[in-house]
Amino acid sequence: MEVSGPEDDPFLSQLHQVQCPRVPADDACRAHQLSAAGPHRAGERAKGPSPPGAKRRRLSESSALKQPATPTAAESSEGEGEEGDDGGETERHCDADAADTAFGTGGGSRAHPRALAAEEIRQMLEGKPLADKMRPDTLQDYIGQSRAVGQETLLRPLLETNEIPSLILWGPPGCGKTTLAHIIANNSKKHSIRFVTLSATNAKTNDVRDVIKQAQNEKSFFKRKTILFIDEIHRFNKSQQDTFLPHVECGTLTLIGATTENPSFQVNAALLSRCRVIVLEKLPVEAMVTILMRAINSLGIHVLDSSRPGDPLSHSSNSSSEPSVFIEDKAVDTLAYLSDGDARTGLNGLQLAVLARLSSRKMFCKKSGQTYSPSRVLITENDVKEGLQRSHILYDRAGEEHYNCISALHKAMRGSDQNASLYWLARMLEGGEDPLYVARRLVRFASEDIGLADPSALTQAVAAYQGCHFIGMPECEVLLAQCVVYFARAPKSIEVYSAYNNVKACLRNHQGPLPPVPLHLRNAPTRLMKDLGYGKGYKYNPMYSEPVEQEYLPEELRGVDFFKQRRC
Ligand SMILES: Nc1ncnc2c1ncn2[C@@H]1O[C@H](COP(=O)(O)OP(=O)(O)OP(=O)(O)O)[C@@H](O)[C@H]1O
């Protein structure tokens, strides 16, 4: 669903009206590659040491699941970041790479895949997180999000023809923002468009400038477009966002920003007006099941139908002498449900559950002195719950835990318990909570609970908020810790907060029309108003050396003290 975007336009009409900022043509710059110290590339892979040949051979035997990556020569030589950018190298295999090739196939159905041996599955799960390995390369494998990129949307044909406008992808964690950018990167490769990735958590302004310079050179010398993907764009400050604004405007760059934060507050208005905002939603349970099943099928794990009686492990025959792995169907459903629309959480929870179960099988064999393994392994609902807990630190950023923990933090500070305050803060931050969410609550706390007992608390809280905005996690955690301890130790007063609530209650409970503003308190900028008695009898306080007797409330509220009473 698109919630905003340039009127009528499609995106490119403004480009003709804007004079591009100039950067001297510089061949060295063109040759400049985004180095290790600089921006990351989309789909960059960790290169590990080559594994023993035997291991490689075992993995390559699962050829039915293989999907080789074949980048073009130009892409390989430039090294511009897409999946498979190192595909031309012959001796590059490592566990993760070899295992990668086994992923990406297999639909989301619960049909039984070819059974793989437990050891094979364990090897496939080692290395990169399962969520990364399962990242789809094509829109066909991109599940859910039909309101944003479905067949009926305006964006879909643009994505399919690679006419990509500047976009802000806004949605909760793990819903597919980076994945959509990755799919666009994949398509761009086919259309000779450069795709460069920066993460706002660690990119510096100079990195942005480098990307811009290179984009300008590519455009002027090779007529080649550049798409710049900025993950967590909300973490860029205003001046960083300003750096690329004119280049987006003149078409040197197509910007794709991803954010979990409301872009109306976190992205410069000028930049926002040049981008389409695509709202991605939490993945529904059915979509989660499809995504999990795609992984389960790719791993060659069997799903057991719990409605069928008998010993589930004796149902399936396995031609291999190696054991094979099964998962209860209700475990899949539970995982889909508990992941709360976050596919990364679901996939990584699945990975931990399978790995934990496979390792405990080995331990069992060692302890019992058996020289053989139990022939079958079953992943149960409890296993996935444990897997989820470990990968998610029992913290659900979007659900109840989010509100429970912030409430506990608020109450601990109110109760002046500095230890508990720090504990709840760390629980949230370690669980992946947005530091700005916590900082906003601290701003509120400063006035609600400390108030005029220490007015500088509000300054502290606003400073902590801004500091978090500037530097982001993990550096900003100590700012929040400092502020939380300051608040736990501070004197408390709810005087202003209660008085203001009394005023609100007074307004809400008022029967009939609200009393008029007394004439003497009204301003009288025109003769007519003066003639009507506006401002008449008003005593201008600075003119008096003694306290002035004057009423400031409406007549009917005379004598009310909101600081003493609960209701008027
Ligand atoms: N719509 C989807 N279809 C298929 N797989 C998905 C989808 N969304 C997410 N995934 C899976 O979940 C993983 C994490 O998703 P992704 O990195 O795109 O999330 P994100 O929205 O960018 O999250 P964050 O804000 O935390 O970076 C992907 O690697 C992919 O395996």
TrEMBL record:
InterPro entries: AAA+_ATPase, AAA_assoc_2, AAA_ATPase_RarA/MGS1/WRNIP1, ATPase_AAA_core, DNA_pol3_clamp-load_cplx_C, MgsA_C, P-loop_NTPase
Disordered, as annotated region: 29-93
Segments traversing the membrane: none
Composition-biased stretches (Acidic residues): 77-88
GO-annotated molecular function: ATP binding; ATP hydrolysis activity; DNA binding; enzyme activator activity; identical protein binding; single-stranded DNA helicase activity
A single GO cellular-component term on record: chromosome, telomeric region
GO BP field: DNA synthesis involved in DNA repair; DNA-templated DNA replication; innate immune response; regulation of DNA-templated DNA replication initiation
Cell location: Cytoplasm
Highest taxon listed in the record's lineage: Eukaryota
Catalytic activity: ATP + H2O = ADP + phosphate + H(+)
Family, per entry: Belongs to the AAA ATPase family. RarA/MGS1/WRNIP1 subfamily.
Quaternary structure annotation from Swiss-Prot or TrEMBL: Forms homooligomers, possibly octamers. Directly interacts with POLD1, POLD2 and POLD4. Interacts with the N-terminal domain of WRN. Interacts (via UBZ4-type zinc finger) with monoubiquitin and polyubiquitin. Interacts with TRIM14 and PPP6C; these interactions positively regulate the RIGI signaling pathway.
Name of this chain's protein: ATPase WRNIP1
UniProt lineage: Eukaryota, Metazoa, Chordata, Craniata, Vertebrata
